[in-house]
Design goal:
5 helices; globular
Length: 199
Amino acid sequence: MKQSLFAAALLFLLSCNNGRNSDIKNAVDSAAVIAQPVQNSDAANAAINFLKWYKQHRDTITKIEMVNNVTYGENEKGKPYSVNFGKAQEYLSALRASGYISDKYMSNQMDYYKKCDKYFKENPELGGPPVGFDFDLVLWTQEIESTLAAIDTAKVMEQVTGSDTAAVTLDVMMQLKFRMSKAGGKWLIDNIENVTQLH
């Protein structure tokens, strides 16, 4: 009787110990999984590749002057600023040549230019940086050089990917949020927003 009780107690202790070992192993395995870096999604890689492309082509693209009559002193002609929509289309076409820009991005940006043009009509500007165009219209910042430098080490802060839509936030000294959609098996950019102040 004593031997059977001892055997039962031993089996119980062994089973408890095995359970603990299993729990410990599971905890270690879970920690290892958490510690692994998150792999960039295809959408995140597309956003990063676009920024790298933009960095290489920015000097040429930003020479396209989308605002008429801009002077950085007194405007001798006395003509108020206005958006040159032909140049705006040229600018967007240059961005689209990257292969990462969607129709929706083109439409959203053109809507933005129309709002700026309306502002110029209601609030005539005769000199100085034109409101709405006094920052980089892709990076959404005036801290251009430091942002361009950070593109090579861009970090994915957040990525939410569905079957045909995605949202990716990148840290490039500030935080840029890309809203994206898939067309023809490729991720394209619908919108870029500086969300630094929201974090």
